[in-house]
Amino acid sequence: MLKREKAKGQKGASAPATVRKQEAQKLEKPLFEKKPKNHWTGHPAQRDLSCCVTWPHDIHQQGSGVTLYVTESTSHREPAHPGLGLQTATQPLTLAHKYSRDHKRNSRDSWPRLRSCWPRGCSTKRPLVLQAEVNTVTTLVENKKAQLVVPARDLNPSS
Asked: Is residue 122 within 8 Å of residue 157, measured between CB atoms?
């Protein structure tokens, strides 16, 4: 069979734009090379995510990543803030004394007065309570209902 020669002025139809984009994507080198999964006996079925994890400088992997150990280097995170002043430190202590269990036992005398007020529809507010859990304090701060928040001295602000 005879091959036809193209005319010098004519060009063939170019490939669609989608095909050109796919060819360009194939040429790019992936960030992580794919490894074939090996589900035989004795091999882990989970994907190896060690390439995605960045460990802090004071934590190192020992062996095959099974054991982690922390070096005794100084922490580079947040320096410990100084303690509270006298005025700020007395506020939570007075509140703790005011709302302690002994104070609640002494307030039992007020229950008959509250019961007599109940049918008339008098407004009885909830008693103030000290909150000491992280989650409850966080929700109170988010709802702007916390009046005084005193963090612990060794609290890590990044967590």
From this structure: no
Q: Which residue has the tokens 């922490």?
A: 75
The C-alpha atoms of residue 81 and residue 88 are separated, in whole angstroms, by 15
Is 117:83 a contact under the CB 8 Å cutoff?
no
Query: Can you tell me the distance from the alpha carbon of 16 to that of 20, in angstroms, rounded to the nearest whole number?
Result: 7
What the block records as the tokens of 75 is 């922490």
88 in Cβ contact with 151 (< 8 Å): no
Print burial letters for 42-71: b (CB count within 10 Å at least 16), e (below 16): eeeeeeeeeeeeeeeeeeeeeeeeeeeeee
Q: Cα separation of 78 and 56, whole Å?
A: 14
Which tokens in the block code for residue 12?
Answer: 């063939």
Helices (H), the chain: 17-27, 86-98, 101-106, 111-117, 134-142
Select from 51, 128, 56, 71 the least CA-distant residue to 95: 128
User: What is the per-residue pLDDT across 13-55, written as a single tens digit (0 to 9) for each?
Assistant: 666 666 666 666 666 666 667 777 777 777 766 666 666 666 6
